Amino acid sequence: MVSGGKFEIGMTAFIAFAILFPSIPINIHFSGHIAGMNNNLNWSIETVDYKGKVGRFTSLALDSNDYPHISYFDLDNSALKYAYWDGSQWHTETVDSKGAVGYPTALALDSKGYPHIAYFNFIRGNLKYAYWNGSKWNIETVDSQGFLIGHLAITIDLNDYPHIAYCDYRNGYLKYAYWDGQWHNETVDSNGNISWFSVGAHSIFIKNGYPNIIYGCGNELRHAYWNRSKWNIETIATDEKEICYASTALDSNGYPHISYMEDYTAKYVYWNGSKWNIETITTSGLHAPQAIVLDSKGYPHIASYITPNVNETDRDQEYIYWDGSQWHDEVIDSQGYVGGCCDIAIDSNDNPVISYCYWQHFDLKCARKTTNNPPDTPNLPLGFIIGFKEHNYSYITSTRDKDGEQVYYMFDWGDGSCSQWLGPYSSGEKIRASHTWSKEGAYLIRVKAKDIHYSESRWSAPLPLLIPNAYSLPWNLIQNYFAIALKNILSH
Predict the structure, then answer these.
(1) Which residues contact 103 (CB under 8 A, 6 or more apart)?
(2) E strands along 347-421, which residues?
(3) Which of 150, 203, 341, 428 could serve as a FRET partner for 451 with CA atoms 20 to 30 Å apart?
(4) How many CA atoms, within 13 angstroms, populate the side-chain half-sphere of residue 85?
(5) What residue ranges define each of the domains in the chain, with the CATH number in brackets?
């Protein structure tokens, strides 16, 4: 995807690589300037969890200290995981690993800042609920009637009791569960068109002591609310195609503001006290808004991903916001296939915090605004550019941190694996890492850095590495490639 004008690949190495192996696809990616609402703040892009295939189905909330808490799915272990920031570092833990659980998740914090998570057992189709009581996790099955999967939402009332909106996928029903000393389950809408994407982040809320749910029902945006004796359902808007990711936030008057996706178009709806107002957020590209929050002025902020086509051959993590006069959209992370499974919160200074997934390696990511400067992009890793499988090769790089802080490095070896975070090292210190490739092929090696505050640099320019089949290429051709590419890389 193109979002600016700066090459992210060492062009001399790329040219030598591309001329010799024209059939090997190499993606050229561009990056644009990231501009925040406050020019004194930087986006801090942080990897919260990278151990295994994690990062899908994130749900985010901030506590009274503005510290993020995130629930998410561990694909490798089919487990529900939870991460939180304690003011100096990220902590991660497994909450539930019995069955295929955490697919998807919804998180809310109670008055003590304790997490409550609604999620599904995907195999059994059960709705589950986990909460932290200050000393341990308590896990319950809330509903086992039906095939209960899809996106869901949770809120906590003034008594710290949970309320959950969810989907009976097999029947296409919208359901509601709440706790008042015991669990109760109800069918809210039995239309039959409730789907995996109908319920969005924060789409259930309590108003005047009663539950309200905003959701998609086929091509209709609906509002269900309890009026002391029964559920009432109104249609807010009707579109041509299915409405997905209906997410809601309330302003200071208790009026709902809603974002949703209709055919990769970002829509925004709000109630002004007398009528529903509907807007199409007209920015270029195909957008998938997934969560909305409001700042202290009542202005909407939306977490979304942007993609170049409906086949989603690429993704970028996007942030959309209204400044009082116009809409703005920023790509905050664009390197690789990144974005989506996202949620958003606003801190006490009206700064956004966004959780999302880095799909290339299934990492859990978090982006937030800070005064800290991330490290500079590391230098192109230097080392062997041609070799043999099952041999260990070393690569050298370095970077500097504007704040003079120690840095860590992570290498992407181009074969689907990454190193651990290596370090810490002094700013500007040259470091070395090694790896062994088990198969012949063409690989791109790159490296990124993070400082002691977890703020990450961009990925470096990639170094091409060839592990050829010894019998497939004439040795003189391999020697020529080695000489040309090495000369170009050393002059980079």
Answers:
(1) 56, 57, 73, 78, 119, 120, 122, 149
(2) 352-358, 363-370, 382-383, 392-397, 407-412
(3) 341
(4) 24
(5) 6-27+374-490 (2.60.40.10), 43-369 (2.120.10.70)
Give every CB contact of residue 277 below 8 A, 6+ residues apart in sequence: 269, 270, 271
Q: Which two tokens stand for residue 263?
A: 């055919």
Q: How would you classify the pairing of strands 441-451 and 431-436?
A: unpaired
* Rounded Cα–Cα distance for residues 283 and 267 (Å): 11
Cβ neighbors of 148 (< 8 A, separation 6 or more) are 120, 125, 126, 127, 166, 167, 168, 169, 175
- Report how far residue 275's alpha carbon sits from residue 59's, in angstroms, rounded to the nearest whole number: 30
Which residue, 96, 111, 110, is CA-closest to 142? 96
Total-model pTM: 0.88
Residue 478 has what DSSP assignment? H
Among candidate residues 313, 305, 402, the one with its CA nearest the CA of residue 356: 305
> pLDDT 10s per residue in the chain (492 long)?
333 333 334 444 444 444 444 444 444 333 333 333 455 899 999 999 999 999 999 999 999 999 999 999 999 999 999 999 999 999 999 999 999 999 999 999 999 999 999 999 999 999 999 999 999 999 999 999 989 999 999 999 999 999 999 999 999 999 999 999 999 999 999 999 999 999 999 999 999 999 999 999 999 999 999 998 999 999 999 999 999 999 999 999 999 999 999 999 999 999 999 999 999 997 788 999 999 999 999 999 999 999 999 999 999 999 999 999 999 999 999 999 999 999 999 999 999 999 999 999 999 999 999 999 999 999 999 999 989 999 999 999 999 999 999 999 999 999 999 999 999 999 999 999 999 999 999 999 999 999 999 999 999 999 999 998 865 556 665 666 566 555 555 555
Which residues are within 8 A (CB) of 228 and not within 5 positions of it... i.e. 6 or more apart?
210
Placement of tokens 């050298």 in the chain: 396
Residue tagged 């959950």 (tokens) = 164
Distinct helix (H) and strand (E) counts, the chain = 2, 37
The angle, 0 to 180 degrees and rounded to 10, between the axes of the packed helices 11-20 and 475-490 is: 170
- Looking only at the bridges linking them, the beta strands covering 204-207 and 210-217 are antiparallel
DSSP 3-state of 487:
helix
Q: Residue 474: exposed, middle, or buried by beta-carbon count in 10 A (0-12, 13-18, 19+)?
A: exposed
The gap between the terminal CA atoms of the chain, to the nearest Å, is 25
102 and 57 in contact (C-beta within 8 Å)? yes
Burial 56-69 (b: 16+ CB within 10 A, else e): bbbbbbbeeebebb
